[in-house]
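Run log, item B.
One chain of 135 residues. Sequence copied directly from the ordering sheet:
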Amino acid sequence: MSESTPAFEHRLLLGGRWHGAADGGAWTLIDPGSGDVVAEVPYARGEHAAADARAAVDAAERAFASWSRVSPYQRGEVLERAAAWIRERADALAHDTTLESGKPLGEAKGEWLSACNYLTFFAAEGARAYGRTIP
């Protein structure tokens, strides 16, 4: 691991719990500038990748019944909380992005903050739909 440890654990969120890959496999992220290992992230291959995908689909299917009853305003609040979470950690997220991709720090932070803008915009979209479909 490089001297600068990533700010976040890298795992799969499936059914509300954090997991490694089904086969225990990992992909090594390398800092292209130094060649140092940045992190190990879950990475399954072949039939094991299908098992991870199936676990994600099954978890989404289980969550659908309750999530489909959540109002657009409540869904918007979830997206707003996600945007706030990212904004609070934008510097650390940008740092990790720079380590794993070699992207300039300012550009990496801009991408994370841009993601916040999208989340904030779409947080309000459900409330603006008024039950209509816009062609």
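Observations after the first pass:
- The radius of gyration is 18 Å.
- The beta strands are 12-14, 17-19, 26-30, 37-42.
Flagged for discussion on Thursday.
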